[in-house]
Amino acid sequence: MADYIAEFVGFLVVVGVIWWKVVPPVRAAMARQRELIAGQVADAAAATERLAQAEQKYRDALAEARTEAAKIRDAARADAQRILEEMRLQADREVERIRQRGEEDLVAQRQRVIRELRLRIGELVVDLAGELVVEHLSDERRRSATVDRLLVELESMAATTQGSPTGEDS
Fold it and tell me: In a 3-state reduction of DSSP, which class is residue 164?
């Protein structure tokens, strides 16, 4: 019964340490990531706004070109059409460039966030594993049992290699 109580207390200590040492940095990292994603969403909204402004400029330029074409019928029709086509191409290129840059930024940000999270989680796992090993080996009885188990395994490996001349099982 005392072993169960000791194990339960040890479990509570481990849970307490995790709650005290691991959970706050993980929560902070998650909050930073939420803020980063919110910033990216805001950047995407700003890109959409710029796209809408570019479309509005395009529509304004198109209306101006049509008015000018109406005033100057014959000679200006060819020029107006050429200008209209150039503006469409330029607006399309600008829209495509803005969209592509936004997508590239989002992909790069996502990859960076994933790398940072993997690195942080790895660090936390290594820290926790180290604490668990130190806690396990701090108990004399556990340490002795681990050494005994290692010696038994080494003896069985030695017996296996002595039984076969090449060190391999037949």
Answer: coil
User: What's the token pair of residue 92?
Assistant: 């399309």
Element (H, E) at 17: helix 2-17
Rg, C-alpha atoms of the chain: 35
Residues, the chain: 170
Question: pTM above the 0.70 mark?
Answer: no
C-alpha 107/C-alpha 129 separation (Å) is 33
**Helix ranges restricted to H, 18-139:** 23-71, 74-138
**CA gap 84, 81 in Å, rounded:** 5
Q: What is the pLDDT along the chain (170 residues), one digit of tens a residue?
A: 888 899 989 999 999 988 898 899 999 999 999 999 999 999 999 999 999 998 999 899 888 877 776 666 657 556 667 888 898 899 889 989 988 998 898 889 989 988 988 888 888 888 877 877 777 777 788 778 878 887 888 888 888 877 665 555 44
> What are 30's two structure tokens?
């998650």
Helix (H) or strand (E) holding 150: helix 140-163
* CA gap 170, 155 in Å, rounded: 19
